[in-house]
Amino acid sequence: MKEIKIVTSFKVYEQLTDLPEAVFSLMQVAIQARNAAYAPYSQFNVGAALRLDNGEIVIGNNQENAAYPSGLCAERVAIYQAGAKYPNAKIVEMAITATSQKHKVTDPIPPCGACRQSIAEYEIRQEQPIAIYFMGEEGKILKSDSLSDLLPLTFQKSHL
Ligand code: THU
Q1: Which of 18, 47, 138, 149 has its CA 20 to 30 A from that of 156?
Q2: pLDDT in tens, 10-59
Q3: Ligand 1, from 63, 64, 73: best to mutate by most atoms within 8 Å of Cβ?
């Protein structure tokens, strides 16, 4: 028996103003998207903004539904929109922010498992890492240099 050890590291920015300028602007777009989320059931608003290598910014926010599982997370709304609109562009980075209508969100909110799997598909397809920056509504911002750091041992098309 041998053991495989997977080490992951994240960068931590103490506040929004510590972010590189382009990421700060991307996070502002994610905040705007977050505020327009349709989340009447969870009252948990999430916004995502993607910067593509063609210079375009694509947004997403969570879209809920009375039939709960029919709703979709902000991150997937964003990447599917990017895939639909700019199929040949690469996703350079993604900014994510979340807020609650019930309490203050100070923890950085990472993408859920299903979103990680969905983003991984795009990262593998484009053969270039996607940097992920995520935060709550205030406080620290965490950066993952690649989606693969959030989802090691990814199930992918080469396994089919
Ligand atoms: N949500 C997201 O938009 N992204 C995530 O990664 C986690 C959860 C949404 C889904 C649902 O509308 C609400 O947050 C509560 O789970």
Answers
A1: 47
A2: 999 999 999 999 999 999 999 999 999 999 999 999 999 999 999 999 99
A3: 73
Please tell me if the CB atom of residue 62 comes closer than 6 angstroms to any atom of ligand 1.
Answer: yes
Q: What are the residue ranges spanned by the domains of the chain?
A: 11-155
DSSP H/E element including 93: strand 91-100
Amino acid at site 146: S
Mutate to test the pocket of ligand 1, among 75, 101, 112 (most ligand atoms within 8 A of CB): 112
Average pLDDT score, the chain: 97
Q: Which CATH number fits domain 11-155: 3.50.50.60, 3.40.1190.10, 3.40.140.10, 3.60.10.10?
A: 3.40.140.10
pTM for the model stands at: 0.97
Helix (H, G, I), strand (E, B) or coil at 150: coil
* Ligand 1 binding pocket includes 151 (Cβ within 6 Å): no
